[in-house]
Amino acid sequence: MSLQRKGSHIDILGLSASVLCAIHCVSMPFILSAGALGSTQFITNPFIEITLILVSVVFGYSVIKKGYLNHSKKSIVALFVISSIFLIVFGIIIHDHESPISSIGGIGIALSFLLNWKSIQK
């Protein structure tokens, strides 16, 4: 397996985790408000939330670092770092499901993956 192909799998895994994390963060207020309609234990499980956040950040670091060495765009790195901080602080430390900032963090990480990927393709 070539290095480029292996990197592609990591990019896809990281992007998928960050998109799932963003969807999770954005949908949480709606899911919690509909809690009486069904069980929300699975979706609000801290293990699932922390896993999504950590996979997004850890794989994101690897992918964004590799991309930065290729395209040198500090704005993509800044977007990733700021989004990661928002996501970690509001998703893990404060654990606030109603804060839009954790949603912004998840969306920002997904956007940084997309911008990084587009910059590498040029």
Write a compact overview of the structure shown.
The chain is mostly helical and 122 residues long. Helix content is 81%, strand content 0%. It has helices at residues 3-33, 46-71, 74-93, 100-121.
Notes on the protein architecture:
The chain has helices at 3-33, 46-71, 74-93, 100-121. With 122 residues, the chain is mainly α. It has one domain (3-121). Helix 1 packs antiparallel against helix 4 and helix 2 (46-71) packs parallel to helix 4. It is elongated, with a radius of gyration of 15 Å. The two termini are 23 Å apart.
Mean pLDDT, nearest integer? Answer: 75
Which value, in Å, is the CA radius of gyration? 15 Å
User: How would you sum up the major sheet?
Assistant: none
What portion of residues belong to β-strands? under 5%
Order of helices and strands: HHHH
Distance between the termini: 23 Å
Outline type? elongated
Structure class: mainly alpha
Number of helices: 4
This entry's quaternary arrangement is: single chain
Number of domains: 1
Produce the secondary structure layout.
Blueprint lengths: L2 H31 L12 H26 L2 H20 L6 H22 L1
Helix pairs in contact: 1-2, 1-4, 2-3, 2-4, 3-4
Core attributes:
single chain; 122 residues; mainly alpha; 4 helices; elongated; disordered N terminus
